[in-house]
Amino acid sequence: MKTLVSLVLCLLMSVSALAAGVTGDTLAGNWVFTHMILDGEQERPVNQPVEFTAGGEAVFYDAPGLEFSRGVFTIENGVIIYTDKRGEQRWQVIAFTGDNLHVDHAGAEMFFERE
Hints:
Elements: H1 2-20, H2 24-27, E1 29-38, E2 42-52, E3 57-61, E4 67-76, E5 79-84, E6 87-96, E7 100-105, E8 108-114
Antiparallel strand pairs: 1-2, 1-8, 2-3, 3-4, 4-5, 5-6, 6-7, 7-8
């Protein structure tokens, strides 16, 4: 039991360390929302360009490069809080390497790659 608790604590600390590097400045730039995984198993391609600004805006583009939607975001304790006309979404950062971002939004895992 102690081993299991230690393992869980190490995992949580690792996730926190990976999420700690996410700031408006480190997220700023052009990305591609490549795919998402629903219910832990069903992978769905997305391939949608996204621009995150250091000032806290997120712009999603459609395939021809036209603006599809726009919102704002803040980052608090490893959570990207994205808000647009549909309301607030909480994206829990699972991993961030600088060029790859993996978040969980209400059970849907979202994957982004820097362009």
